[in-house]
Write a structure and sequence with these properties.
The structure is a single chain. The protein has helices at residues 57-84, 91-102, 104-111, 117-125, 139-155, 166-178, 184-203, 231-239, 244-259, 266-269, 303-311, 322-336, 346-357, 362-369, 374-380, 385-408; strands spanning 4-9, 16-24, 27-37, 45-46, 49-50, 275-277, 280-285, 297-300. The protein is mostly helical. The chain has three domains: 4-111, no CATH class; 117-213, DNA polymerase, domain 1 (Orthogonal Bundle); 231-384, hpI Integrase, Chain A (Orthogonal Bundle), CATH 1.10.443. Strand 4 and strand 5 form a beta hairpin. The longest helix has 28 residues, at 57-84. The chain is elongated. The model is unreliable at 108-113 and 405-409 (pLDDT under 50).
């Protein structure tokens, strides 16, 4: 007795489920493995397994399905042999055992009390559900969830967890572009919030559909020209004359340019005392985004940072809200003549790029910016071709100088 595997097409969708079937005597077991192949993935299905996949990330992911199929086949054969000792095996008993192996029984119990996709989405968008880290979401984050929710309801008011497949995403992505006229980066933003919600729904047991984790469930963003401010531009922005409200926004933005901190950390700065060490002052804090990893960083306070702090007699005013800061930074930079398209996040790019050009070790900069890899950090830097060439030439000269010193010695 050897289990066989075949594809069962879904008439409502272009995807197909992988089914396992076993026959012995007059008995038959037909079992859904929960593995689903999309239309463009079916061509790799041969002789009951995934074969001849391309050596890409998608191909590698498809091959992992074979591991599950092998596991289910081995489990079915072993259970069949064990049950044969007491007579003819019962298909119901084998199916229940496979459900335990495949995690279906546990998921079925969870889904008895599961909330629908839109019910859960609305609770998240209204701030009724905390994030997975147990924290309240910021207002601007909730607004983004509401925007995505609105798009989804316009597209399909009956949408539920199990409907969100790779094929569905490709159709929805096309609709966003053609009907709502969204640009690629806007679609990518929608996808990020959709995936975050799907992930939380999965963690809470409401969702068992994991298609959203597939590599094909993606949206490639356009490569936009990001901007960074040089130290001279940061100084010029700070020295420009602004009214009281705009001045507070600019001061916080300048501090972000000098420290590399995210907007979510602005409100922390005013409550954290500085650490004095010799002639230097430092700021110790755990960035909001890395809080769950308890990664504390120490940042050297620049002269400009200390000047701003001294102006407020050691205690900064309350940090502006996101909407005020976003609009304020843009208008302030235009007014000061340092850029027409400056965004809040450009403060971190400015810090990273200026620190790198100033000779700071990239590993040290990454501890502050939070980039996990060197490649991710380098892509963050704003270096044009001419500047990159100058840096390479400078590095070559230093290397040549060291070599000459060794020869003389």
């Amino acid at each position: 007795m050897k289990p066989s595997f075949f594809l069962k097409a879904n008439p409502k969708q272009k995807s197909a489920l992988v089914i396992m079937q076993m026959r012995w005597g007059k008995n038959k077991l037909t079992y859904s493995t929960s593995v689903r192949l999309e239309e463009d993935e079916k061509k790799y299905w041969k002789d009951g397994r995934i074969k001849d996949c391309p050596e890409t990330e998608v191909g590698t992911e498809l091959k992992t399905y074979n591991t599950l199929l092998n596991k289910l086949e081995t489990a079915a054969r072993n259970k069949f042999i064990k049950e044969s000792v007491n007579g003819i095996p019962n298909p119901v008993v084998i199916k229940k055992y496979l459900d335990e192996i495949n995690g279906k029984e546990k998921r079925a119990k969870i889904l008895e009390t599961a909330e629908s996709f839109f019910t859960f989405f609305e609770k998240v968008a209204n701030g009724e559900v905390l994030s997975l880290t147990g924290e309240k979401r910021e207002k601007n984050t909730l607004d983004c969830y509401k925007r995505v929710l609105s798009h989804l309801k316009q597209y399909d008011k009956k949408l539920d967890w199990q409907d969100i497949s790779v094929t569905w995403w490709h159709n929805y992505r096309t609709w966003l572009a053609e009907e709502l006229k969204l640009k690629v980066n806007s679609i990518k933003s929608d996808l990020l919030y959709l995936k975050a919600l799907m992930n939380q729904g999965t963690e809470l047991g409401y969702n068992t559909n994991l298609d959203f984790k597939k590599k094909a469930f993606s949206a490639r963003g356009e490569k936009t020209k990001s901007i960074y401010l040089t130290p001279a531009q940061i100084e010029k922005l700070y020295r420009h004359d602004f009214d009281k409200e705009r001045r507070i926004v600019v001061d916080y933005f300048v501090i972000a340019c000098e420290t590399g901190l995210r907007f979510s950390d602005w409100k922390k700065i005013r409550t954290i005392p500085l650490i004095k060490k010799g002639c230097n002052s430092f700021l110790d804090l755990t960035p909001q985004k890395t809080k769950k990893h308890q990664t504390e960083v120490r940042i050297l306070c620049s002269d400009l940072f200390l000047e701003i702090l001294e102006k407020y007699r050691g205690k900064l005013p309350a940090a502006p809200v996101y909407s005020t800061a976003r609009v304020g930074v843009h208008k302030a930079c235009v007014s000061a003549g340092v850029g027409n398209n400056i965004h809040l996040h450009d403060s971190r790019r400015s810090y990273a790029t200026n620190a790198y050009l100033g000779g700071m070790d990239t590993t040290l900069i990454r501890t502050i910016t939070g980039h996990k890899t060197e490649a991710a950090f380098k892509s963050y830097l704003q270096l044009d071709a001419e500047l990159s060439g100058d840096l390479q030439a400078e590095h070559a000269e230093k290397k040549k100088g060291k070599k000459e010193m060794r020869v003389v010695a």
